[in-house]
Amino acid sequence: MLYLALLIGIVSIVITDKLTQAFKLSSIWVLIGQICASLVIIMVGKLEFSHIILGNYFELGYLTIPFTLLFLVGFTNVMNIEKDQNPSILLLPFVSLVCFSMSAFIMGHSFGLITGICTSLTIMFILLYGYFSGKAFVGSTLTTSIGFVIAVLSISLEMSIITIYIPIFTLALPFTLYYFIKDKFTSIQSITVSTLVAILFSVLMFIVPFNIIWYLVVGLTSILIITQFSRKYRFI
């Protein structure tokens, strides 16, 4: 059912986004589509945060559904790009998905492994097509769909250090860096720097001891949350 729920969710996001663009509707309809897609994952896919494991075990109780909904919608919009972008920007979610696939393989998590590999291959095809044809452009419909998949993968692997670390430090943080430097460098240079940062953080996850990663996550996550209070630094 989780595969079906994921498919329905992606279709809901794509249709809502395309209709909003075609009829020039308010962006609130895009958000409504994302909320509906997230509710499908929660209700049909039976996927939710019932607890958080961050060193200690925390039960969410009545906050389970609201927290899950907020997480899904939030990370769906991490790479919500309004204008067409160079297809190479997809290298950032590609790195995240490879990390998820590797983690799922180590954990023996079939849904995470299959979904991660399939999405990674899809992105690779788009990248190759864009490179050889020079015609592929990346917009909000594609990036929000990929963001939705990444959010679902995060929850499916449970609320652990992996769930927090991968989407934030291999996608959100590098994309924020790209956003800040894209006006100072060429598009390819900005994407290259951001991708290298994403790869660096992905490598750290597999070689640095858990306790050090924990302090890194807490510290940098706190900084990222604080920056969201300023419109200038906001990415969600």
How would you explain this protein's 3D organization?
With 236 residues, the protein is mainly α. 71% of the residues lie in helices and 3% in strands. A two-stranded antiparallel ribbon has the order 1-2. Helix 2 crosses helix 3 and helix 4 runs parallel beside helix 6.
Oligomer status: single chain
Number of strands: 2
Rg over alpha carbons:
17 Å
Distance between the termini: 29 Å
The proportion of residues forming helix, as a percent range, comes to: over 70%
Notable traits:
71% helix; mainly alpha; 236 residues
Short note summarizing the structure:
By secondary structure, this protein is mainly alpha-helical.
Task: Write the topology of this structure.
Layout: H1 2-22, H2 28-43, E1 51-54, E2 56-59, H3 64-76, H4 91-107, H5 110-133, H6 140-156, H7 161-181, H8 187-207, H9 210-227
Antiparallel strand pairs: 1-2
